[in-house]
Design a protein that fits this description.
Elements lengths: L3 H4 L3 E6 L7 H18 L11 E4 L2 H10 L14 H12 L2 H12 L12 H11 L11 E8 L4 E6 H6 L7 H8 L9 E6 L5 E7 L2 H4 L3 H13 L16 E6 L12 H4 L4 H5 L8 H24 L6 E4 L16 H16 L3 E4 L4 E4 L6 H21 L1
Parallel strand pairs: 1-2, 1-7, 2-3, 7-8
Antiparallel strand pairs: 3-4, 3-6, 5-6, 9-10
Helix pairs in contact: 2-14, 2-15, 3-8, 6-8
Length: about 400
């Protein structure tokens, strides 16, 4: 039997982490990848032409949706090169500096506001204008996968375009899905909406940020394939046995602060619930730091182990910057200076050598003898291009 690439049956996955305005970092990486694909296959190709699954959480969900949602011609709504322009134009309105300053000043005076930092109106208006009434089933070029969390039912809800095509009650509007996965606690209000079928049945959703369940949605993306395989659905490659040898997975982080001894057992033992949620004047949120950092690293380690176990680690590329500090480490600082710094971080990340997490230390370490991330992306682009050509030929 021929190998999967020769059959044109590699499962291809793109996953983008959550992280607010730090979406500028993966936005920079994705623009580089799409430019390399266009060099190979022409200026009209888009990332959705190459990936069977595009997944994203929170800001990553917004990026994933823009890459996969169709325009009037049935092509992706925007090119990857437009992602950063989107953040540069709308970021300062979504993350209003005046709202942020007013909120944290009130907290510092122990006069705790009754509302989130931002009212979310700008984001809701923006997604409505951008996506209009498009629904998940309108996404046809790829399977869009977006994790959220239902605060009423206290369980994760994963939206996918494949599910939407088989169940009307899962066919949510893309704008609602984006607002649901982006509703980060403290920062934005929860997002409520309903779906209805032709018989009048209703399903309700009370959603908060998908990062509560999957800040790094790579594992959710891969599992969505197994779910479809079990249900015997079409629209994805028919692979009898799927492991790391038959997958191409690109996982993009939005950056994190470097490993540091920020807290200690002695320190946290004296904390109240307020201390766990908020540390002034740095505006740290220790509880969220702990949950987000731990779950993201666990996902990366789990997936890397799967690929290494079948000697296919070259099929899994995780690009993450773990040297953020100051404003760049925060998710809602949308000043002109900070957004420029985040783009610069993305560009410098391309020049760094491929890194992998050291599970003993919890740190990302450059791999001796590996190429730069940019060179690894070029290789990844070539493999994606070859896969697409084989599919088109067959």
């Amino acid at each position: 039997m021929a190998t999967p690439p020769a059959q044109g049956k590699m499962l291809t996955v793109l996953s983008i982490d959550g992280g607010g305005i730090r979406g500028l970092i993966p936005g920079t990486i994705l623009a580089s990848l799409e430019a390399k694909l266009q060099e190979l296959d022409g200026p009209d190709v888009r990332l959705a032409d190459y990936f069977d699954i595009i997944a994203g959480t929170s800001t990553g969900g917004l990026i994933a949706t823009m890459l996969a949602a169709p325009n009037v011609e049935g092509r992706p709504l925007i090119a990857a090169s437009d992602i950063n322009n989107f953040y540069l134009e709308h970021g300062p309105k979504i993350f209003s500096e005046s709202c942020r300053q007013k909120y944290w000043e009130s907290v510092a005076k122990l006069s705790f506001p009754k509302n989130p930092v931002y009212d979310g109106a700008c984001l809701r208006d923006l997604t409505k204008k951008l996506l209009q009434d498009k629904t998940l089933k309108d996404v046809t070029l790829t399977n869009l996968v977006i994790p959220t969390f239902d605060i009423k039912l206290l369980h994760a809800v994963v939206f996918s375009s494949n599910d939407a095509k088989s169940d009307v009650l899962n066919n949510a509007r893309l704008a609602d899905v984006c607002n649901g996965t982006s509703a980060a606690p403290i920062y934005f209000p929860a997002h409520y909406f309903e779906t209805k079928d032709d018989e009048g049945n209703t399903q309700t959703f009370d959603l908060i940020d998908g990062g509560v369940a999957a800040g790094n949605p790579t594992l959710v993306a891969i599992n969505s394939f197994y779910k479809e395989k079990l249900k015997q659905k079409s629209g994805i490659p028919e692979i009898e046995t799927v492991d790391g040898r038959k997958m191409l997975v690109l996982s993009l982080g939005t950056g994190a602060a470097p490993f540091e001894e920020k807290y200690s057992a002695d320190m946290v033992s004296k904390w109240s619930i307020i201390d766990w949620v908020f540390q002034y004047p740095q505006t740290y949120t220790p509880l969220f730091d702990s949950v987000a950092g731990g779950t993201s690293d666990m996902v990366d380690f789990s997936i890397a182990s799967r690929f290494q176990s079948v000697q296919a680690i070259q099929n899994y590329l995780r690009i993450q910057e773990n040297g953020l500090s100051g404003d760049t480490a925060k998710s809602d600082i949308a000043t002109e200076e900070n957004m420029k710094n985040l783009i610069d971080i993305g560009k410098k990340l391309l020049k760094k050598r491929v890194s992998r997490i050291n599970w003993e230390t919890g740190r990302y370490e450059e791999v001796e003898g590996e190429s730069t991330n940019e060179e690894a992306l070029a290789t990844f682009a070539k493999r994606l291009s070859d896969e697409r050509k084989l599919r088109l030929a067959s």
